[in-house]
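Field reference: "sequence" (input) and "structure" (output). Example, protein-ribulosamine 3-kinase:
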Amino acid sequence: MLTPLSLLVSIKNPLLERFDKYPDDDEMPELPHGAKIVSTENHGFSFRATTMRIDVELANGSPQTLFMKVLLEERGRAMVQGEFESMAAIYNLIPDSVPKPIGWGTYETIPDTHFFLCGFKDIDQELPDMRQFTRCLAALHQNSKSPTGKFGFYVPTYNGNLSQHTEWSDSWETFFAKSMRHALAHEISAKGPSEEIEVLSTAIFDEVIPRLLRPLESEGRSVKPCLMHGDLWYGNTGKNAITKDPIMFDACSFYAHNEYELGQWAPVCNRFGFEYVEGYHSHFPISSPVEDYQGRIDLYKLCVYTMSSRFRMPDNLP
């Protein structure tokens, strides 16, 4: 695992040698070339990445605090790109509620080493205020607009170290079914095929998904593709330590049915209880047909559970 010291030795100065993309090319053009490192320290926790706080002095003499995540190998490159694009999309809609994404790229002097860089926010790891948080999340969903009008995302994104299905689709039912198959493929690659999974999968794809999702797009109804955070459990949220505003981070986004986000909240251990769900729907009403709502949430929860089951397996599996 890389340490802040080894990174400092490797990158020397300037702080970062090359950026593959900026949110705004004119915003901070001096950062990679004129910034000087003042201090660095490990910050936060990640199972798969080196994470750190970096205090820098910009070329104009002003101080700035940054957060950097470093990942290795080709999968790591895809992960930091996916996180940058996800956070940039969210930042464009609710800028006060996410750290400002700055860039992502690859070190020239350290092989197969990739970074995601964003502004630093001092975060209290407490549940965000229910009213503020649910209003913010509903605004993200309501104000977002898929660039293609379809479900999916424009780059691959990763939930943890697992790729998600993000290819564009006109139909929510079709997109979700492909996402579920993708999650099951991760499960089978880790634990091997089983007759039970085969039997249950047939029922899920042939009966359950059409029964619960097809009515959303039937009889004149339609589903708006909304921007998801993608992994909105309580560990990826908190409060701004200064303003107490809700904060979310570690996004792995795609455009989906807004209720999909709530499938992450269904397990009791996730701590976003009924009051959060009710608060959210006070801003974004339940989709029609309402009578299928709980079934849809259970279906979305199943997809989340399938992905989280794979997290318990070793990283060296596909």
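The chain has nine helices and twelve strands.
The first strand starts at residue 36 and ends at 42.
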